[in-house]
Amino acid sequence: MAPPPPAKARASADPRRLALRRRRLLGALFALPALLLLGALVVYPVLFSVGRSLFDASGDRFVGAANYVEMFRDPATLKAVRNSAVWVVVAPALLTGVGLVLAVLTERVRWATAFKLVLFLPMAVSFLAAGIIFRLSYDQDPDRGVINAVVVGVHDAFEEPAPYPTARARPSEALTGSPGDGYTTAPGTVRPGTGVLLPVVGVAPGAVPATALTARAPAPEPDGLSGTVYLDFTPGSGGRQGVIDPAEKGLPGMTVEALRGGEVVGTATTGDDGSFRFDGLGSGDGYALRLPAANFAAPYNGVNWLGPSLITPAIIGAYLWVWTGFSMVLIGAGLAAIPRDTLEAARVDGASERQIFRRITVPLLAPVLTVVFVTLVINVMKVFDLVYIIAPGPVQEEADVLATRMWLVSFGGGNDQGLGSALAVLLLLLVVPAMVFNIRRFRKGGS
């Protein structure tokens, strides 16, 4: 049996133990406020939500797992689950890829710091403000929505818009039809050597081109077929229908087709005074004249970004705008830690930049890319603000994710906090594995 330690050793050990206990107690006292706050804001709401999910909408009757069963029977909830899956698959992958490319490119451009700052600035904008910005940007009216203004500008640069989208033929026996089908004279009623008047209404005076001249009656010519397309409207009073009055303008740029037997045998475009002419037509044949529907086609108004088919991709686009800077900065920090001698050795050995990127840069950045990807997965699972603000009311259900569905079911008119709590528990169960994976990665990287 070992002899007891000397009294002097015991006396020196006791103060050490006492000091260690005091430090532990002091650490616990400092951690206590944070633990109380964590319990009040995290632990208690989680436990309450789990318990509340087992009761009905009023909270008075215990229903067990009925809310969880109903959750997967509700078509709107299943649509929210599907949209959340689209978010998880698309948004983190795109952000990680775009962030990687931008991080690599910023090392090769001048003013790299300013470039990073510009890309990171949207992170300073709240999701509420970003949602309002993109709700206006996605407006289908090109005069309000900047994205559709660009789309319409590009479209009109390659395809000429209709010259008179609001124009309509003057109701008469001379022209019959509709804007969608075009307006046509009676078959065989027009012959070479005659002049034809084609009156049009529905064009505001301000919409008439500045180059338009006063309309003039066509002069009949034996070897040709001529006519005039004009705005049959005299400001004020005194005008006569079907007759060119002195103040009436011709409509330049209007397409006119000559038909024989239903087939187009000639095409002409009106001049500044609205006149047109066909030459080379047979003198004894009867024709019909047509104003094609292309003259009256409605203007191209862009893409319906906020419609049911594009609302989810549109919101994901807004999310990418906000979070691209975050992804780029984190990946850029990892890129800066890569040993430069490894890259230089590869270049000396004759490796191309593409080979260096694929076989050296990406493998060395794999831990950073994984952390960024998982962090974004956690974030998109909880996305709420952008979806709720950008999606208009009629298509809100088409854009719903689990977070917005949970809020709508509980507080946004559904008033079923039992089902809403079940959705909250489902969302927690989906987020926890990704959080655990990320925490393990951080611990592994720090060890």
Give the tags:
2 domains, four-stranded mixed β-sheet, 447 residues, single chain, five-stranded antiparallel β-sheet, 14 helices, MetI-like fold, elongated
Word description of this protein:
The protein has 447 residues and is of the alpha+beta class. The chain folds into 2 domains: 66-152 and 305-446, MetI-like fold, CATH 1.10.3720; 168-295, no CATH class. 51% of the residues lie in helices and 10% in strands. The strands form 2 sheets. The protein has a 5-stranded antiparallel sheet with strand order 2-3-9-6-7, with no helix packed on it. Strands 1-4-5-8 form a 4-stranded mixed sheet, with no helix packed on it. It is elongated. The two termini are 42 Å apart.
